[in-house]
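Sequence design from tokenized structure. All designs in this work follow the same two-part layout: the structure record, then the generated sequence. An example of the structure record is given first.
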């Protein structure tokens, strides 16, 4: 597998220490933070699960079968990694108010625990969450002092807000396909593939813009014509701002001006096939912060392991933090096949 993000610039320089990431599911723990409370009543049964070795879509489909509903009646706020221990909420449309015996589901699927159930008046939809809590353990760390120094830098200065490798598929296949679709003017009714390749196209262009800003020494400060965020609102460049943004390219003109427009336009123009796909699907331009700053970042070391805890807002990638901390040691993950009862 190639390093999809290997061409992108580092904010703190390429890491010197090496480590393994996600050797075991318990080394990558994610707990969903919706940021709001449920009403306690309504047509939707809310089910909080803890899973390991299964992806969210699989659990949702199995839950639909168990509940005797269609897959479209199951909702979730975010897709969670298979190779991790994750906690999240799923919603099931059960308007009659029935609550099945959930212990029967866990007997069928021992890799999924039911932690809690309640009721709500709305279905969970993608993006309906504030963020996620992470507890990630680095193993076989080659240099503990170097890793702790890097984590201190991340705590003070943040990291580039790159989209992670999972957005682009194995060997960047999603980007390759996105370019082909744009070049060949591919049309499809498969909304999942369409969404996948459009997301990969916009994310790839965004990552390159951020990388160029680091290389051109304008990552930490705004430049002429930038679009910045001040008190939660997007606006033109000002000396007083909370965050700098970069383009999520669309079919409309970039809102930046001057030096910022020149920097972004150069990247946009360098990807004609990706832009053909974006424009052909009439995606509207959006903005994304260029810096990622984890909240409540803490860590502790033990022998050759470092356990790191933090919180990230929705849409950001934990792997982008560790890209600046260690060089990941590749390994072959062993899968334990668990027998399913008939």
């Amino acid at each position: 597998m190639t390093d999809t993000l290997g061409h992108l610039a580092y904010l703190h320089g390429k890491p010197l220490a090496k480590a393994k990431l996600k050797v075991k599911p318990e080394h990558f723990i994610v707990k969903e933070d919706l940021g709001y409370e449920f009403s306690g009543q309504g047509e939707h049964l809310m089910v909080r699960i803890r899973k390991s070795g299964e992806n969210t879509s699989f659990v949702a489909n199995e839950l639909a079968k168990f509940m005797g509903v269609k897959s479209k009646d199951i909702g979730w706020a975010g897709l969670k990694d298979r190779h991790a221990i994750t906690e999240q909420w799923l919603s099931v449309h059960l308007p009659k108010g029935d609550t099945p015996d959930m212990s029967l589901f866990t007997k069928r699927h021992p890799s999924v625990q039911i932690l809690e159930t309640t009721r709500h008046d709305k279905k969970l939809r993608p993006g309906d969450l504030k963020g996620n809590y992470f507890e990630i353990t680095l193993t076989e760390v080659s240099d503990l002092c170097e890793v702790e120094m890097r984590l201190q830098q991340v705590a003070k200065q943040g990291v580039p807000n790159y989209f992670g490798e999972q957005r682009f598929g194995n060997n960047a296949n999603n980007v390759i396909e996105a370019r082909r679709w744009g070049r060949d003017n591919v049309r499809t009714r498969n909304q999942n593939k369409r969404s996948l390749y459009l997301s990969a196209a916009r994310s790839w262009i965004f990552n390159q813009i951020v990388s160029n800003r680091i290389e051109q020494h304008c990552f930490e400060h705004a430049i002429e014509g930038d679009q910045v965020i001040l008190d939660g609102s997007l606006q033109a460049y000002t000396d007083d701002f909370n965050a700098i943004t970069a383009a999520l390219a669309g079919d409309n003109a970039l809102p930046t001006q001057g030096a910022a427009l020149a920097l972004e336009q150069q990247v946009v123009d360098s990807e004609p096939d990706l832009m053909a796909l974006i424009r052909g699907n009439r995606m509207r331009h959006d903005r994304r912060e260029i810096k990622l700053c984890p909240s409540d970042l803490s860590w502790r070391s033990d022998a050759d392991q470092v356990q790191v805890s933090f919180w990230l807002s929705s849409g950001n990638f934990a792997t982008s933090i560790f890209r600046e901390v260690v060089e990941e040691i590749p390994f072959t993950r062993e899968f334990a096949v668990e027998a399913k009862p008939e």
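The radius of gyration is 22 Å. We note this feature because it recurs in several other targets discussed in the main text.
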